[in-house]
Write a structure and sequence with these properties.
The complex is a heterodimer of chains A (133) and B (179). Chain A is mainly alpha-helical. Chain A has six helices and three strands, in the order H-H-H-H-H-E-H-E-E. In chain B, the strands form two sheets. In chain B, strands 3-4-5-2-1-8 form a six-stranded mixed sheet. Classes of the chains: A mainly alpha (133), B alpha+beta (179). The interface between A and B is large, with 37 and 42 residues.
């Protein structure tokens, strides 16, 4: 490319656009490979997903934005992992997070943390967690 | 249409992206891809500029550097459901549109996917009506894209152009490609 403007634009692409482009491409490649591997037709997929074939056509022709629900359904039906969300956080710093007392118990049973009461605030409703490193 | 040059625009790990230079005599002249990205990337409209950046990122990173020009990225209306093309629109004479990242995506960029490792980018524009030919900003680019594609196809068929790895070369092995 010769245009300095285009080079600069490429250099300064916002992170959210980079992420969108990358995830979308990965997703499409993954889904298409799964369809080819399983030799699925539009009608097969429609049947598996309990959708009308016309709706599947929309998906296959790109005229559809995936919802989380449709992605989950696809992940199950195709048997390939399409989305993952990191579960483990090294550090949680919930400043002044409000939560009911029962959820505090759930939290403490799952993570190793101590509850630091915030001075002057009722403990059961307002707390601060610090994950033990 | 007179002669034009097919010029390397970006070389990635997975795919070489070419574009068209209309000015055969001036090697410094911008290619059609440069013109497209420069025009819409500084259009003074946030939506268009965001769309341009997304297209640029997709072409350079996803197609050229990471995945190659997978069929799934391009239109395949003649095929059945073996792929999930997220780029919709019509395919005429092998000319493809890169366009549909989300409903209402405002831009169209024409291109010709020769192989998974070679793509030629043309120009494009804003889609403002149902068909590209009826969109004022696009219709000329659409017809130009047809002409470029015909010439490239014929040159490949007649041996004037050939493919070596992920490169286009002419019949003398030269990479100065004038058609």
């Amino acid at each position: 490319m010769k245009s300095q403007i285009v080079k600069n634009m490429l250099h300064d692409i916002p992170e959210d656009i980079k992420l969108f482009s990358s995830i979308y491409a990965d997703l499409m490649v993954r889904i298409s490979e799964a369809l080819v591997d399983q030799d699925l037709t539009k009608s097969d997929l429609a049947q598996k997903l309990d959708k009308r074939p016309s709706e599947i056509s929309k998906w296959l022709n790109g005229g559809h934005n995936f919802t989380l629900k449709s992605l989950c359904k696809l992940q199950v039906e195709l048997g390939v992992q399409l989305i993952t969300v990191p579960q483990k956080r090294k550090h949680i710093d919930h400043d002044f997070v409000k939560a009911p007392a029962e959820s505090w118990e759930t939290k403490t049973s799952k993570t190793s943390c101590k509850i630091v009461p915030i001075a002057g605030i009722k403990f059961s409703q307002d707390y601060k967690t610090v994950v033990n490193e | 249409m007179s002669t034009f040059v097919i010029e390397e625009w970006y070389r990635g790990n997975e795919c070489t992206i070419y574009s068209i230079r209309k000015d055969v005599d001036n090697p410094d002249a911008y290619t059609e891809a440069d013109r497209f990205f420069e025009k819409y990337g500084s259009f003074g409209n946030a939506e268009l500029e965001g769309a341009t950046k997304l297209l640029l990122q997709f072409v350079v990173n996803e197609i050229a550097d990471v995945h190659g020009a997978k069929e799934v990225f391009f239109n395949r209306f003649e095929k059945e459901a073996q792929a999930l093309p997220y780029i919709s629109g019509r395919q005429v004479n092998g000319v493809l549109q890169i366009d549909n990242f989300y409903p209402g995506f405002p831009l169209r960029l024409y291109c010709y996917r020769i192989l998974e490792n070679i793509v030629v980018l043309y120009n494009g524009g804003m889609k403002t009506s149902q068909s590209a030919q009826d969109s004022k900003d696009l219709s000329m680019k659409f017809y130009e894209a047809q002409t470029y594609t015909n010439k490239i196809k014929n040159a490949l068929r007649d041996g004037i152009l050939s493919i070596s790895d992920s490169e286009l070369i002419d019949e003398y092995g030269d990479d100065e490609l004038i058609l």
